[in-house]
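Bumping with the actual sequence this time:
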Amino acid sequence: MIWNIRNLVVFVFVIVMWMIVDHLHINNVLAFIIIFILMFLVLYVPILFTVLWDSNLKRIEKFLMSRKNKPEYHLFYALANEIDEEVEDSTRLLLQKYKGIHKQALYKTVFAFYKKEILTVKEEIEFIKPRAYKNYYRAIVCMEEGNNAEAHKIIHDIPTPWMRNAILSELELKSNHYAAALKLAQQALHQSKGLQKYVLFKTYQRKFPEMQSVNGTQL
């Protein structure tokens, strides 16, 4: 069995921690709980930080590229870089893996939106949870259908700032208000974190020549 660096670090960490708690004469059950919690922090907190809160785009891209065999992560990379075949493959694998109606609806909606199949998006969004994502795609459907007034109503019910500004930016762009669209896109990018920030950045690179870098970072 070939161990990667992460497995080796975990193994050494467990051995060292067990020696420490044994030296401190801590009850075995309590020692196991402490080590389990520390292992969780060491293994998963860095991943959660990158996925949800990181703003370092190069670090996020490196994270995604190192996990191309995991469709949960690779879908973000493929969407951001518009790699059609890999978007389709990742979506197919995720639909095979997750059978819950809400996750199925979300992945189908994401794929349909990527393919600009608005009718499919309209069918699937009714099954999406949480509500913020449902309203996000509902507003997009209204916008694509030219119902901007209804889109604006829905946008006000979206609690996530980057989602609101991302859609408002698209509305301004469709109305040929480039400067307003650019400002809203910059706000959405600033408000977003983690994997979503990476997807927005790569998307805005294609739409706005002024957004080729963030804080000097260029991908």
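The tokens above came from a reply further down the thread. The two ends are 36 Å apart (CA to CA).
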